[in-house]
Automatic annotation (TrEMBL):
Species lineage: Bacteria, Bacillati, Actinomycetota, Actinomycetes, Kitasatosporales
Name of protein: PAS domain S-box-containing protein/diguanylate cyclase (GGDEF) domain-containing protein
Top-rank taxon, per record: Bacteria
Residue ranges of every copy of the EAL domain listed in the record: 24-286
């Protein structure tokens, strides 16, 4: 904000921007201790089959229970953790915790003999992708938990893989060969070359929420429908499954189902929440 005084124009710092910078700085320096003190926790959001509405897994979404600011969503601290490198130990913790949780759902499913074993999706940020320990850490977490690799899906954003060279893809390829699914998150926002998809070791496309929003009117804009139809048909021809994000209404769910999307995630089904609810949800649709 510019202010003039005594005829001389000079810039006064924006007090709100200052406050934000101070908060950011405070959060950044508090991150390592927060991890040690166990202030992070994970919420789980169900992924459902569009065909029959059954829960088939969940995405792990990290939160920070900050002693002064209350519960903070990932957008408030993941970029900071990325910047400082704390994302590596934090991401390892999320993976370990989410995989342990999935293993416990599998054990419950064995006992109940009714609920299907749920799959778990975990987000990876670009720094984690570049970290040399990624494959070893993942193998270690899976082995110690006893969760089959096929029950884990790692989500990488489309933008993190744009222009990725073989060095970057190699760890993902290794994980995919072990049976871990790799999903391309927020697909459709990154302007990636569609032909490039063939070269990536991915098995799932997560269509960005902006496409879901375009399905709110019924019938949806014909161009929007054609775009989704085209992506789905391309994905299926490459043997990729299509998940849609941000489904908030039945109108969206029905139109996306008709366009051939395989699975969905969003508030229409459930908000992210505590892990115990997932098993109950999947038992409920098994009846
Ligand atoms: P994402 O992976 O694309 O996750 C989906 C986001 O959409 C989540 O936001 C989720 O709460 C939100 N969402 C789900 N359903 C709906 C809906 O129907 N409508 C709307 N408007 N939103 C919906 P959240 O939890 O705030 O996470 C934001 C992003 O933070 C995630 O986007 C992901 O990129 C990142 N993130 C979350 N957890 C982790 C993590 O453990 N590690 C890393 N590296 N990133 C994470
Ligand atoms: Mg995700
Ligand atoms: Mg996403
Ligand atoms: Mg998203």
């Amino acid at each position: 904000r510019a202010k003039s005084a005594g005829g001389n124009r000079f810039e006064l710092a924006d007090p709100e921007a200052d406050a934000r910078a101070i908060t950011r700085h405070g959060l950044t320096t508090a991150l390592p201790a927060a991890l040690e003190r166990g202030e992070f926790f994970i919420e789980y959001q169900p992924l459902v089959h569009l065909g029959d509405g059954r829960v088939h897994g969940a995405e792990a979404l990290v939160r920070w229970s900050h002693p002064q600011h209350g519960v903070l969503g990932p957008d408030h601290f993941i970029p900071l953790a990325e910047h400082t490198g704390l994302i590596v130990p934090l991401g390892r913790w999320v993976l370990q915790e989410a995989v342990r949780q999935a293993r416990s759902w599998h054990e419950q499913a064995d006992r109940d003999r009714s609920a299907p074993p749920l799959r778990i999706n975990v987000n990876l940020s670009p720094t984690q992708l570049h970290h040399p320990g990624l494959v070893a850490d993942t193998v270690d977490v899976l082995e110690r938990s006893g969760l089959p690799p096929g029950a884990l899906c790692l989500e990488v954003t489309e933008s993190a893989l744009i222009g990725a060279d073989e060095d970057l893809l190699k760890p993902l390829r290794q994980l995919a060969e072990m049976g871990v699914d790799i999903a391309l998150d927020d697909f459709g926002t990154g302007y990636s070359n569609l032909a490039n998809l063939r070269r990536l070791p991915v098995s799932v496309l997560k269509l960005d929420r902006s496409f879901t929003q375009g399905m709110q009117q019924h019938p949806a804009d014909p161009v929007d429908r054609k775009i989704v139809e085209g992506i789905v048909s391309l994905a299926h021809s490459l043997e990729l499954a299509v998940t849609v994000e941000g489904v908030e209404t039945g109108v969206q769910a029905e139109q996306l189902r008709q366009l051939g999307c395989d699975t969905a995630q969003g508030w229409y089904y459930a908000r992210p929440g505590p892990p115990d609810r997932l098993h109950t949800l999947s038992l409920a649709d098994a009846v």
